Amino acid sequence: MDPVVDFIHNQPPKQKVLLQYLHDKLTREFGLHSKIRFKIPFYDHKSWVCYLNPLKLDGVELVFLKGQELSDVSGILQSKSRKMVAGITFESIQDYPESELHQIINEAILLDELAKKNK
Prior knowledge:
Blueprint: H1 3-9, H2 13-29, E1 33-37, E2 40-44, E3 48-54, E4 60-64, E5 86-90, H3 98-118
Antiparallel strand pairs: 1-2, 2-3, 3-4, 4-5
């Protein structure tokens, strides 16, 4: 079985639902590839784009590695005093701001593509 799917299935029920939902969005809708790194799921396009971080209090944070470079017009990203990354915390599927998040994911993928071309 896929290590990321194994990871998701071994989480508490509330987090499992959130992780599975976000995993499916990232892999199926956006075509990102998943892999366990640092004991959590990371998602790649050309390089690392984002990761899913299960939080101690039942939520899941979707974190973008170049979060500080994203425009975040809707203001949904939180840096939490981090210098490079920024993320969105979900406590339920209803927290999913679909159009805003799609825009951020697409921009993160575009940044990833541009970074690889510029090297």
